[in-house]
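User: I'm writing a short report section on ligand binding and want a predicted complex to refer to. Could you take this sequence and 6-O-phosphono-beta-D-fructofuranose and write out the structure as tokens? A short remark afterwards would be nice.
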Amino acid sequence: MPLPFKSQLPNLDGIYAALFSAAEIIYAELKKGAGLKFATSSNESGDDQIELDVIADEAFFDALRRDGNVRYVVSEERPGLNRISDGRYSVALDPLDGSKSALVGIPSGAIFGVFENADVAGDFHGRNIVSGGFFVFGMNLEAYFADGDKVYKGIFNQDTSTWKVLPIEGGLPSADVLAINGQNQMVWDTWLQEHYADLLDTRNGTARPHNMRWYASMVSDMKRMVLQGGLFVYPRANTRGYEEGKLRLVYEAIPMSFLIAAMGGASTDGDQSLLDVPVASLHQKTPVFIGEKSKIERVEAAKRKHS
Ligand code: F6P
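Assistant: Sure. The structure tokens for the complex follow:
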């Protein structure tokens, strides 16, 4: 069945069709319980892979390589730029986000960003992204994405094997919810330790204390953000391996920031919007703060006050 969605951008419909059909394949594998064990490999970024990571990467790659508008595919699971055609668009993917959480039944998903006129790593920059979002592999197969400045939700009907894609109206909701893994807090930068304490202060601060939620699956935490609002954080820490945080700029931070910006939210690495951070390499990590504009402004102000 053709995808019941028409992009406002030229020649992008085939790319959406490829992404959505790959997501259907991965979801079907996940529901069978396929690939839910550690593989003997690790990916480009040095993370241990589960077998479904590899299945997901191949499903996206196979679908995208048939579209003549795809110039390059970049994946968390592959080194470098993979040339497909002379097309105008390049697609960056985290083919299976939250895979460790998938092992215990927490919804995982996939993140995608479509970039225009990209030829080198530095072109996979927030100013060149034209579409970005994610799939959730949970109770249902869902998609949340921004096509240019318009935001949509897709839901897959498993009885009829058809998608329904509807606009999300009304902008980013608001909620005092903080999604963060507090594990490294003893080695966070001082300004963040103080800001974190401030956000959670249950005494008589001016703002309501934030409630905490952490799925350890970015797509699940961002789904809650899209539906309810809040602040998502994966900071840097002064410990080996976390000097620039954990999440990847090109295929995690930029697509999510693009979607939330289209809803009226914002993002920062602490100093500047994640959509303005220069890209030096495809797999580069970045500290990530994404959420409601006022919460991002408070993050940047807290950091500025310390410097
Ligand atoms: O990118 C991988 C990822 O699984 C994200 O989906 C998630 O937000 C994060 O890592 C969880 O990290 P941690 O296991 O350190 O909480």
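A remark for your report: The longest helix spans residues 13-32. The mean pLDDT is 94.
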